[in-house]
Structure formats: C-alpha cells, structure tokens
Amino acid sequence: MSFRFIVPALAAILMTTTGCATVTRGSTEEVTFTSKPSGAVVTTGLGSGCTTPCAIRISRKEAFWVTFKRGRDVRKLHVTVKSSSDGTAATAGNFIAGGLIGVAVDADSGATLDHVPNPVHVDFSVPQADIQQSADAYYHAIRKAEEEKFAKERAAEKAAKEKQMQ
Q1: Mean pLDDT rounded to a whole number for the chain
Q2: Sign (positive or negative) of CA dihedral 125, 129, 135, 138
Q3: For the chain, percent helix, then strand, then coil, each to nearest 5?
Q4: Which tens digits make up the pLDDT trace of 78-130?
Q5: pTM for the full model?
Q6: What is the pLDDT of residue 5?
Q7: Which residues form the signal peptide (predicted)?
Q8: In angstroms, what is the C-alpha Rg of the chain?
Q9: Measured between alpha carbons, how far is 107 from 77 in angstroms, rounded to an integer?
Q10: What is the pLDDT of residue 17?
Q11: In whole angstroms, what is the distance from residue 32 CA to residue 122 CA?
C-alpha cells in the first residue's frame, strides 16, 4: 500500500473519531422524573417542567434544582452532573486515536457528563429534610440493580462461549 493512500485513510479515521462521546452520547440527556404518588408537577430551575412520570431532555452540562409539587406539598432537590464512565471511555478513544480536537469537543459539549440522580424520584411520604438522601439512595439502588444484571448477562455470555469452545 502506498503512502499516498495511507495518509488520507488516517485523516479519515481521525476526523470520524473526533468528538466521539459527543457523537455517541450527545450533548443532552433525557432526565426522568418520578414521584410517589405520581401526578406531581415538576419544575426545573432551567425553566422546563412536566407532570410525573415524565422526562425532559436537558443539556448534560447543566446542574439544576427541581421542585416537585403535589397540592400544597412541595419537595425540592438538586440534580448534579458527574463524569460518566461511558463518556470518559469514549473520550479516551479520542485521545488514543490522536484526536485531541475530539477531547476538546467532548469536554465543551458536556458529552462525558451524566445527571445524578437520574431518574429523579421523590417520595412525598419522606420529609423535605431527608429528600435529597432519599433520591440519591433510590438512584444508587437502581444503578446497583442494573450493574448486577449486566454482570450476570456477561457471566452467562462468557459461560456460553466457554461451552462452545469445548
């Protein structure tokens, strides 16, 4: 293969991997809002709102306050942004491929970030003083269940592959 073909091929690879997390994850994220009981009116500090259960697409870079209102009962909590392992892995792909521009694009777009907690859940039987801890615990319980399910699926796939090899 001549040098004349290698350079354009490498350039094409670098251009397609630039901003990898931005391409695969996007600069916005769907944040889900639930409440017990359902039917609470949700208002974010960003100006958007809905009635539970619902979801709103929000910029990955935006941390915000959310208010759940059910009649006169009101609960407020804070949704933060944290670096995501999925986003970090996609950005690492940029770095390995030499796409420093892609790393900058991902950082600027917020594609490496996730909202926490997501889903955002409010239980109106929990007092306001404990609501942030309750929402965070709900989020972590869901994440743990998802991770355990994923680990079981991977173990089953591995066992199936090993069985085929025998």
Answers
A1: 78
A2: negative
A3: 50, 30, 20
A4: 999 988 655 444 445 555 554 555 555 555 566 778 889 999 999 999 888 88
A5: 0.65
A6: 64
A7: 1-21
A8: 21
A9: 26
A10: 46
A11: 11
List the one residue out of 159, 58, 75, 164 whose CA is nearest residue 116. 58
Dihedrals phi, psi of 100, to nearest 5 degrees: -60, -30
Q: Cβ(56)–Cβ(50) under 8 Å?
A: yes
Using the structure block, give the residue that is written with the tokens 């994220």. 29
Q: How many CB atoms lie within 10 A of CB 133?
A: 11
pLDDT digit string, tens, across residues 33-51: 999 999 999 999 999 999 9
pLDDT at residue number 138: 82
Please state the length of the chain. 166
- What the block records as the tokens of 17 is 């991997």
Strand partners, 76: 67
How far is the C-alpha of 37 from the C-alpha of 25, rounded, in Å? 32
Query: Which residue in this structure is represented by tokens 């809905």?
Result: 50
Longest dimension (CA), the chain: 74
Domain coordinates of the chain in residue numbers?
3-152
Counting Cβ atoms within 10 Å, is residue 156 exposed (0-12), middle (13-18) or buried (19+)? exposed
- For residue 156, give both structure tokens: 């089953």
Distance CA(82)–CA(17), nearest Å, equals: 23
Residues 6+ apart with CB under 8 A from 97: 13, 14, 17
For the chain, the straight-line distance linking the first and the last C-alpha, in angstroms and rounded, comes to: 40
